Amino acid sequence: MADHPNPIKSIRFFTRVYCVLIALYCFVRGYAYLPSNAPPDLPGVLQILTEQGVHVVAWSVIWMLAGFLSLIGTFIGPQARWCGMGVAMAYVWGAGYLFSYAESYFGPEPTSRDYLPASTYLIPAGIFTLFLLLIDRMLPYFSPQKEDR
Question: What is the spatial distance between Cα 112 and Cα 92, in angstroms, rounded to a whole number?
Answer without folding.
Answer: 18
